[in-house]
Amino acid sequence: MTKFINPGLTQTSRRNVLRGSVLAGAAAMTGAGALANQRRGPVPRIHPPAARFIEAEAQAQVAAEPADLSGYTRVKQELVAPPFAPAHEQVATGGPKIIEVYMETTERLMVVDEDTGASIWALTYNGSVPGPLIICHEGDMVELTLRNPVDSVMEHNIDFHASTGALGGGGLTHVFPGEETVLRWKATKPGCFTYHCAPGGAMIPYHVTHGMNGAVMVLPRDGLKDADGKSLRYDSIAYIGEQDYYLPKDEFGDFLQYEVAGDDYADSLDAMRTLTPTHCVFNGAVGALTGENALKAKVGETVLMIHNQANRDSRPHLIGGHGDYVWETSFSDPPLTGLETWFVRGGTAMAAMYTFEQPGVYAYVNHNLIEATLLGAAAHFVVEGEWNNTLMEQVVTPRSFDA
User: Fold this and answer.
1) Are residues 202 and 329 in the same domain?
2) Is 192 part of the annotated catalytic residue set?
């Protein structure tokens, strides 16, 4: 997909941008182009977490004892684009680590559906929807450097559902264009967790429904286990981010196009209030994980499917397969077993493990089949290997019969 980052836009700063409402009135912007094409008038002022609240959290940190980092080893984790996962250990070796990661808040024009021309100025971490998967172990610390490029339009931050305090880090990571911050938090609970941007007010759902979310997997130090304590291992990870979009349309039902990020704000709020998504897709766009982009596996391989949905409930189903082991909530609890369809609560990430037994194409769908077939919530696994007639066999090919 072609990447465009706010061409020709005047820079913004803390002096001319209100916290959490970078579009809060044309008078607040030196870049008049950001609002020039808006169809429904100026964006209303929004009141997210007040500056005093954020300052109070910063002051509380100053008064607190510094963290004891003795015994920790620093490790840099190279984040990769979905549906892939960064290199990691399934079972932790050595003591706890400080996992260093870097993310950039990139505002980019993305095509959502090539057939209809639907597009969105996506708000992203590292340019992808969903944002990259972060993997650590219980007891590790995640140290994030978050940078907002100078040519961005909006303020961004990050709320880690896996963390403790300060709005999940959201209260300590507000960065305006041209700023960066570093946040360190301890992974105290094992499981899969969502993260997302949460600048405040209506900007929270606006950013989340524009793609600014992703997942963290916190593995137990001794790895995944079944209910009897037996070790469970996987050969690969398929990281799937389910994204609901609410794209504005004109009076003829055609999707509107916008010149720069944020220009769709007022129209998007109207569309979002319907609570009816125009698209519900995996990994950012219709067909992002089908056809040439399908996920690959082989018979006998075990895949850990990590599914993130930052905004709405979902019911994933692997057509032709099952959830051998499913962790809908926490890795601290024994996994559910043998599920046909599992549940992703809105605002969570979860994991399901399956060992493929037959070759062929498996459809991984949101089993609200309207969303899967009409709105785009579908992916494919293409599995290679030898067919097993014991598991399934076409006994008679289709033929005509006498009435």
Assistant:
1) no
2) no
